[in-house]
């Protein structure tokens, strides 16, 4: 069997395979990352249980380490992913929506977008999302985001795999991340899932196309949206994935 990349099914992890999410990603794995988000929020907001908005919350793993300190409202495109976050973070308010267009007619002390920002594929997607962040902040409010990869940090190819199992199910997945066209603003990650349930093995593919922009593009577009941007070191992985947190204070 050969699989052609343009024929692969996309983003199945957040829909028909969303039930596998807790196997793919567990809250414990986010403790170190979340410390940087908490410190960045505290540095900008000072003490207090401030109300923050997370866009693209997914399974709420990163958020699960912030809810002790902050009150939260969370948005995601996928109801199935929100269901995971609801279980993990029951005290949070949840809303289905697109980070590019949602308008809640409310202001928050901070807007955060963890790795979900990587699903912004064009500069116009980033502009729209930064406008959403700005629309939900008062002047002085803070917007923090961290894409998985920048044009400068992506090594060109990254391969990884994991196996998780319990008595009923075994999941092995391979992740092959590469940049099929260095002249465009996206990269591709192909996941192959080997799902063994009740003795039957299924093999399924899942293509994720994500944005790949130079650091300066991020800084320029956040500045254009009215933020004063600081690039904070974010040394949480063995490789240069998520190398920086970008923190913007809203000026107008
Ligand atoms: C990798 S998951 C996020 C995991 C999350 N950081 C955590 O700690 O559990 C990416 C999420 O981005 C969401 N997403 C992708 N595009 C989006 C958009 N335009 N608006 C809102 N959510 C989006 C997906 O539905 C998915 O749940």
What does this 3D model show about the protein?
The chain has 252 residues and is an alpha/beta fold. It folds into 2 domains: 77 residues, N-terminal domain of TfIIb; 167 residues, Rossmann fold (3-Layer(aba) Sandwich). A 7-stranded mixed beta sheet has the order 3-2-1-4-5-11-10, with helices on both faces. Strands 6-7-8-9 form a 4-stranded antiparallel beta sheet, with no helix packed on it. Strand 2, helix 3 and strand 3 form a beta-alpha-beta unit. The mean pLDDT is 95. The protein binds S-adenosylmethionine.
Short précis:
The protein has 252 residues and is α/β, with parallel strands linked by helices. The protein has helices at residues 21-24, 31-45, 79-88, 123-135, 215-224, and strands at residues 51-55, 71-76, 93-96, 108-113, 137-145, 157-165, 169-178, 186-197, 200-211, 227-233, 244-250. It binds S-adenosylmethionine (SAM).
Question: Which keywords apply here?
Answer:
252 residues; alpha/beta; N-terminal domain of TfIIb; Rossmann fold; 2 domains; 7-stranded mixed beta sheet; 4-stranded antiparallel beta sheet; binds S-adenosylmethionine
């Amino acid at each position: 069997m050969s699989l052609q990349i343009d024929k692969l099914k996309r983003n199945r992890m957040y829909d028909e395979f969303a039930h596998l999410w807790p196997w793919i990603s567990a809250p414990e794995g986010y403790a170190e990352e979340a410390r940087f988000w908490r410190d960045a929020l505290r540095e900008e907001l000072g003490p207090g249980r401030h109300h923050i908005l997370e866009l693209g919350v997914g399974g709420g793993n990163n958020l699960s380490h912030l809810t002790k300190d902050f009150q939260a409202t969370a948005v995601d495109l996928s109801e199935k992913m929100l269901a995971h976050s609801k279980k993990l973070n029951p005290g949070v308010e949840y809303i289905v929506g697109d980070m590019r267009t949602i308008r809640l007619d409310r202001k928050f002390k901070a807007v955060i977008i963890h790795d979900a920002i990587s699903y912004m594929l064009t500069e116009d997607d980033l502009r729209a999302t930064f406008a959403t962040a700005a629309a939900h902040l008062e002047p002085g409010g803070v917007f923090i985001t961290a894409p998985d990869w920048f044009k400068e940090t992506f090594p060109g190819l990254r391969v990884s795999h994991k196996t998780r199992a319990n008595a009923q199910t075994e999941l092995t997945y391979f992740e092959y991340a590469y940049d099929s066209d260095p002249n465009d603003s996206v990269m591709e990650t192909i996941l192959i899932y080997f799902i063994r349930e009740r003795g039957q093995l299924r093999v399924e593919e899942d293509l994720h196309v994500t944005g790949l922009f130079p650091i300066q593009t991020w800084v320029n577009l956040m500045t254009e949206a009215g933020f004063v941007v600081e690039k904070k070191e974010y040394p949480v992985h063995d490789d240069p994935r998520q190398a920086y947190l970008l923190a913007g204070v809203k000026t107008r």
